[in-house]
Amino acid sequence: MNVMLRIFIGAVCLSLCCLSAPARQNHPARARQTPGAEAGNRPTALMRAAESGEVAKVRAILKGGADVNARLGSGATALTLAARRGHVEVVKLLLRRGADPNAKLHSFHAGDFTALMAAIDRDVGRRTEILDAMIASGAEVNPTGAFGRSPLMYAIERRDVLSLKHLLSKGADVNLKSAVGVTPLMVAVLSRSEPGILRLLIEAGADVNARSDDGTTALMLAEAQEDAAAARLLREAGARR
Fold first, then answer.
1. Which conformational region is residue 72 in: left (phi greater than 0), alpha (psi within -120 to 50 degrees), or beta?
2. Among 57, 22, 35, 55, which residue's Cα sits nearest to residue 151?
3. Residues linked to residue 107 through DSSP beta bridges, in sequence order
4. What mean pLDDT comes out for the span 38-49?
5. Of 38, 87, 134, 211, which shows the fewest CB atoms inside 10 Å?
6. 3-class secondary structure for 89-137?
7. Which of these, 115, 85, 121, 84, lies nearest to 98 by C-alpha position?
8. Residue 55 confidence class, pLDDT cut points 50, 70, 90
9. What mean pLDDT do residues 59-75 have?
10. Distance of CA 39 to the CA centre of its chain
């Protein structure tokens, strides 16, 4: 493999774990969002109830004045914990009370991601309902400013086809580039995604000849990884080196 291309692949993998916090949007119809207090590494009562899916208990704790956006050292909030567990009603309740759908958090294994991404996983039940609720409350489908990866890219990494299709139906930009010029299609190649995911992106309008900031294309990445199936599919779609 070309040395520079090897360096590029390494840089891309690193950038996918360095997501910059997205800009907030104003949504006057819902409760005002305020920065949450740092809760250290000890979950609050609200977090525990949210993660367990106890709607009545969450409502009671909020009524008592709990900080809906309190966060752990990782950045996790009651909202992200509930979303990760697939607790739709708790998610909706927290959002109505001003939970930040664009909260940024960090996982040792998954890197940096946003609250919306917490629901993106094949193991999360009713995740499309959670995605809908968060997006309706202002979660950014297409990050603004510099970012390491978008929700669409994260769905690709997780091989979550259902979330991938849903995000596309909600306006996710299939050609939105990361801070280093990486596209969702490039992420699919780097993640060695199944051909079906590559086809889905191409059919959604992915630019097969898009170049990263250093001129690398999806086809170059496929060839560098010796992924014959991906390279063939890209060429059939009109990709050039």
1. beta
2. 22
3. 111
4. 85
5. 38
6. HHHHHHHHCCCCCCCEEEECCCEEEEHHHHCCCCCCCCHHHHHHHHHHC
7. 115
8. very high
9. 95
10. 24
Between CA 125 and CA 138 the distance in angstroms is 21
Q: What are all long-range contacts of 209-214, with beta carbons under 8 Å and residues at least 24 apart?
A: 209/238, 209/239, 209/240, 210/175, 210/177, 210/183, 210/185, 210/186, 211/181, 212/8, 212/12, 212/177, 212/180, 212/181, 212/182, 212/183, 212/186, 213/180, 213/181, 214/4, 214/8, 214/180, 214/181
Place of tokens 């949007």: 25
Q: Which residue type is seen at 123?
A: D
Query: Using an 8 Å Cβ cutoff, are 105 and 65 in contact?
Result: no
Percent of the chain with pLDDT over 70: 80
Which residues are registered as beta bridge partners of 38?
Answer: 71
CA distances from 44 to 66, 133, 188 (A): 9, 23, 37
Site of tokens 């050039």: 240
Question: Phi and psi at residue 104, in whole multiples of 5°?
Answer: -105, 135
Q: Which residue type sits at 216?
A: T
Q: Is the pLDDT of residue 67 over 80?
A: yes
